[in-house]
Amino acid sequence: MAINSLVRSRHTAGRNTEKTKQFISFRLRQEWFVLPIDSVQRVIQMGKVYGDPQGTGVSLTNFQGQEIIVVDVAHLIFGETSSLVQEQKQSLSTNEKNQPRILLIIQSDKGEIVGLPVDSTPIMRRVPDSAFTPIPETYIAQGNVRCISSTMIQLSDQPPLFLLDPNQLVEPQKLSGF
Q1: Cβ pair 39, 175 in contact under 8 A
Q2: In what order do the strands lie in the sheet with 148-153?
Q3: 108-162 pLDDT tens trace
Q4: The model's pTM
Q5: Does 6 score more than 70 pLDDT?
């Protein structure tokens, strides 16, 4: 028994024991964002969305026989016109098949389920605790990017990853307050 413990301690002595957390990362426009992996329930191909004739960025889709809210996360984060409505109009007028988009199904702490369309295939990342850095207050106050926590992830030789707050993404007042 003592030999096993000694061997195990020698093997772990050379390893970096820094704690890591898991995230799902994805690109929106030219920026990279992450969500805690435990907030992402599923990653699926996005089906047809409907119910947003005004381009508010909030629509519906059917997932496993249940209607769920789809929030155009780029619209919510950047405050721009809903890209989902424009994509649908373009594909209807040109009758061409666009590249299928990915939908992240997330759940808030209160159990609310929302679909978030993203521009790239999500990537799972393990991030060391030392990579978390605070975002300057001035930047947050400017409101350039909404729904982010006050933290970003800076990995060597990579662009920063903005940590999104899943609860802010699904709050009803946020959805109606575009």
Answers
A1: no
A2: 123-128, 20-28, 31-36, 161-164, 148-153, 132-134
A3: 777 778 999 998 899 999 999 999 888 888 877 776 666 777 778 888 888 888 8
A4: 0.73
A5: no
